[in-house]
Design a protein that fits this description.
mainly alpha, 2 helices, about 60% helix
Length: about 80
């Protein structure tokens, strides 16, 4: 890829990113809609538990099950 195509691709990516950032204004999140009924917020501990600890525990459980149930290492040659 020559420099002109690389520059064109970079400009297109930068322009697309800029347009997406401008179109998704975070200020719209402050406007309440009709029927909006948000619950009470999460504490720091529950947020960390839900978005950090739970995925790590789930990953470890799945990895452990894969290692325990893997039968490929038990093949022994008898000769």
């Amino acid at each position: 890829m020559d420099k002109k195509n690389a520059l064109r691709a970079g400009a297109l990516a930068a322009g697309t990113t800029l347009m997406m950032l401008l179109m998704s204004s975070p200020a719209l999140a402050l406007t309440r809609d009709d029927g909006d009924d948000p619950g009470k917020g999460l504490s720091v501990a529950s947020t960390l538990g839900l978005f950090v600890a739970a995925p790590i525990v789930l990953f470890l459980v799945i990895a452990g099950l894969v290692m325990v149930l893997d039968k490929s290492h038990k093949q022994v040659k008898q000769g």
